[in-house]
Predict the 3D structure of the following.
Amino acid sequence: MRTNQLVKYVLFISCYLFWVASGLMIAMGLYAKLSKESGAVDSLLAEPSLIVIIVGILTFIVTFVGCTGALRDIPLLLKMFAVILLLIFMLQVVAVGVAFLFSGQVMDKAAFLMGKAIASYRDDLDLQNLIDYIQKKFECCGVRSYKDWSQNEYFDCSISNPSLERCAVPFSCCIPEEEQNFLNTMCGYGTQNLKAWKAESLIYTEGCLEKIVTWGRSNLYLIAGLALGLLAMEVIVFSLTVTLIYQISFIIQKRTNTKRILRELDQKEENSGLSSALPREECG
C-alpha cells in the first residue's frame, strides 16, 4: 500500500521548480550585492539585491521542506509546508487589501523611496543604471516632474552648488534626436532652469511615478492574470500537500489496524493452542 504516485510527483516537481528558482534568485542577489559599491544605500527597501537574497533564502528553505516531505512521505514536513503555504497565501491577500484601502499612503511611500533613489543616483552604479533604464523605458524624468532632480546634490539648482551638473538632469531624461549616432551625456544640462513648455522639447518633463501607475492600469489584466495564476498555483500545491498528508495518514492508520488485527489473531491462536494442550496433559 502506497500513496498516489501522480499526486506525490506533481507536488515534488512543483516544489523542485520553485526550489531551483529560489537558488537562482539567491545567486543573482549575491552577484548584485558583491559587484556594487558597499555602503552606498542605507535603506533596506532601497536595496533590491538584499531583498532578493532574503526572499530567495526563505523560498529555498520552504520549498526544500516541501520537496523532502513529498519525496520521502514525511507527514511532519508536509504539515509544516502546508501551514507555511497557508500563511503566505493569507499574507498576500492581506497585502492586496491593505494596498487597495491605503493606496494614497502607498503612493506617498513609493514617491518617498523614489526620491531617496534619486538622491543616491551618483553613489550607486547599479541604482544609476536602474533609474536610467526606467526613465528611458517610460519616457519620464524624476518622481513627479523633472525638477525633482534638485534632490540630488550634483543636480541641485542652488547657487552654492559647485557641480558642473547644477540644474541639469541625467541624459536618460533627454528626448533622443533622430539619426543621432552618439550619446550626448550633456543633453540635460541647465534644463531645470527652463519652464515646462520649453523644456518638453528637450527632455521628458512628466514624472516616472505617474507614468508607472498609468502603465500598471493599462496592463491591469496582465498583472491581475499573473497574480491570480500565482495564487492558483499556490492553492493547487496546497491542495496536493493536504491530499498527500491524508493519504499518508490513511496508510499509517491502515497499517496500524492491520498489525493490531494480526496481533489479536496470534493471541487467539496462542490461547486456543494452550486450551487444546491442557486436556492431553491431564489424560497423560
